[in-house]
Design goal:
Blueprint: E1 2-10, H1 31-45, E2 51-61, E3 67-78, E4 94-96, E5 101-102, H2 108-114, H3 116-131
Antiparallel strand pairs: 1-2, 2-3, 3-4, 4-5
Length: about 140
């Protein structure tokens, strides 16, 4: 069994939305509405600090009850408005500073090379290969 929890943590919002990312702003909102709500809340704080990070935690439990877990983050900043059309969730407002682009402006390959999920999955695959001696 594999479980995944990913979310966005915004420093000026005390780390929110965090584990509640998928429900930020209320039940039934679209991702565009969730992003707008986050941008409005951030604006109301008056904080100039726009630092944030995406987080991914993966937990694997094998048929043999062996457990493996990985955790990865990618640092960014909250954009002032939606930028780009790729991706999903908060990607259009997550600026990846080394590229100067939001995740929604990156190509799929560019995003997959640096995303929190890609890093966590790569680490989990390595842990699985070691634990189960795959490819040895």
């Amino acid at each position: 069994m594999l479980a995944d929890d990913s979310g966005l943590e915004v420093r000026a919002l005390g780390g929110r939305p965090g584990v509640a990312t998928a429900y930020y702003g209320g039940v039934g909102l679209s991702w565009a509405e969730r992003r707008a709500a986050l941008l409005e809340e951030l604006r109301r704080t008056g904080a100039g600090d726009r630092r944030c990070r995406f987080v991914c935690a993966l937990h694997f439990v094998g048929d043999d009850d062996r457990e493996l877990a990985t955790f990865a983050t990618v640092q960014g900043e909250v954009a002032a408005e939606d930028r780009g059309v790729a991706g999903f969730s908060f990607d259009p407002i997550f600026v990846y500073p080394p590229a100067g682009k939001t995740f929604a402006e990156l190509s799929e390959g560019e995003k997959n090379a640096v995303s929190h999920r890609a890093i966590a999955v790569t680490a989990l695959v390595c842990a699985l290969e070691t634990a189960y001696k795959i490819g040895a």
